[in-house]
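So, who can interpret the following?
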Amino acid sequence: MLTRSAKYTIARKPDKKADSTMAHHCTMKKSFYLTVIPLSIILLMICSEMAYAQPSPLTFSFGEATSWEEVIFEGEASSTSLQWIDVNTSDSTWAVVGDELVCYGNPIGVARSAKQYENFMLHVEWKHMEPGGNSGIFAWSSAIPGEENRLPDGVEIQMLELDWVNLNQRNGEKPPIAYVQGELFGVGGVETEPDNPRGTRSKSIEHRAKGKGEWNTYDVVCVDGVIKLSFNGKFVNGLSHATQKKGYLCLESEGAEIHFRNLKIVELPPGVTSAEQTAPEFTGSLNPSADPLQKNQGFIFPEYHLLAQSKQAIDHQDPSIMPAFKALIREADEALEEGPFTVMDKSYIPPGGDKHDYVSLGRYWWPDPNTPDGLPYIRRDGETNPQIADFDRNRLGQMLNNVQTLSLGYYFTGNQAYANHAVRLMKTWFLNPETKMNPHLKYGQHVPGREEGRGYGIIDTRGFAHLPDAINFLRGSEACTSQFEQGIKDWFGQYLDWLWNSQLGQDERGRFNNHGTSYDMQTAALALYLNKQDLYRQILESVPANRINQQIEADGSQPLELERTRAFSYSAINTDFFLALGILGERAGTPIFGYVGPEGQSVKKAVDFLAPYATGQEDWPYQQISPMAAVYQQMGQLFRQAAYYYGQEVYWERARQLPGQSPDDYETELFYPRPEEQPSHAKKLP
């Protein structure tokens, strides 16, 4: 989430009509088309019996997918390449060799599909290379590994080599031969009803498996909690009433080499699947003990389950959220035509002589009209000098805005073009040797005739705090590779070191206004992303004493912000930073939202102080030389965050009372969707 205070005001091009085409397709092999049509007959048979039918991970491409509509209506079907993400194995576990995917079997674990599937047909051919080899595919899985066996939940479509029963005897007795003949069963808490029961498992009614070194073929139809398995050309097994019927596909590594080929998916129309029957989306890191973001699927600022709620509402064309979704797509389409941006585009040469150094101008500093050369510049608080456009700040802001928009667009649509361009923008700004920014801000917010650079310039990069979430939105796309993300992490590692240890960084850390709060937000978020646990906990644990006690009064006012000529704007901006720190505290287990200082200071009181002025109940008694309307959109998100984290309906009501809210404020709507009544998911903090 890129909160409104973190965004930059950039002049955009006129609105364009949103492009409804979301994905780039390549030509699908005709053999796949011929394979899936007979399966449609089986699908219709199944449906007639139903009550209704409607760290940075390794990524690799293997297999193809297409939609049912294209198979039926387009004549010549097209397909997209399937992307897979390693969950908990290693770089040496998987290898695409020619037209085969080789799984070497160690360590035990899975690779998951980049997206979830609900109703689909699956064709795959497989062969074991070792006697007694063990593997399988998990359907409708969360892809979250179990703590003991390293395997996820879902419905397992088992793949065992024939000698498995000979090599796994107990007390001289072989296990049932059904084990190696394509059993189906729920795992990890997913329950099913077997067609051909062997305990809770469903066994094949005919033995059709081939042994080591021979290719086996599975054709699997998965619809509305029902699975039917064709094993080497004949349907012989099935189950129904799966309690989880939408989720990831997972390929299993379990100790022995297995090869896959011709993996193809036809995605079918959705059914009536509730949130309880849907696996949570898994996009985050994998080690709960080492990663506090695990429970929130790797996200820092957005609440994952609220994103899922918005995604589901969009899938169902909910009229309350579709205007925000359409606004997102409109802006994402515009962003496709903009950039890339680079520090090399400025005409100004930095004091060090290297154009890769970021340079910005102090926003409120102007030429002195009383000196021949205008030097030294003088300060006019609240009045932006248009010369800032001659430096890097605006280009940085546009890059951050567009990456956020494109990554969010990809998350909600799967449009690969959005992901490609978002990654291109980041590569240009951070990684490409010819265009990258050096990882420091020595010349941030410089003042001609006074200072080459100031710690105040660190607030220019406050949007960096939200780039890890943008990258998380992009995970699973072809563009967001492990090599790319490692490059980003390396850059941010150097930048965080400069932020924390440089003199300018220490200057900014010592300020007791919005600059200090923004500094804490930025450094804590980057430390969290880079898993520097000691540092981010140190920062967050200092917030109550160093920020809340020092900056907020008992009545919720913020005196250092009230001194400004745009007092309401700066009070809202700093409150936004405090709420962001509260969210970071939630991830780290540090109570910032619930903290109350010795004089009654709190983040909640800072929100409450602004409420009557934002809703028009009272006139703002301090200076505000820019229009109040510019702040209303930001206040909408602040009130919704407060409603969620404090669990109080009054904040939802205040959000509804705000005048002049933009219908294009898609971030607020998608990150904090409006409940019809008091949200049961609210945190309800003190």
In short: The two ends are 24 Å apart (CA to CA). The chain has a mean pLDDT of 86.
